Amino acid sequence: MMVAFLLIVLVAVALGIIGVAAHGLGYLLAIGIVLFLADVAFITVRGGRRLRRKPLR
């Protein structure tokens, strides 16, 4: 799961850099930001569920 998170963050950063560097491709920056925020929200929700579980004994 962590590998997928890091891969999506890497793709978001790459899209952001391309969007800033290339003229007329500002939409890639927007896509990168949205992708990054969605990924962080997904991991936050997933981590929140794990904290609520009681340990098995």
TrEMBL record:
Membrane spanning stretches: 26-45
Entry keyword set: Membrane, Transmembrane, Transmembrane helix
The protein's name: DUF1328 domain-containing protein
Origin species: Streptomyces cellulosae
Lineage of source species: Bacteria, Bacillati, Actinomycetota, Actinomycetes, Kitasatosporales
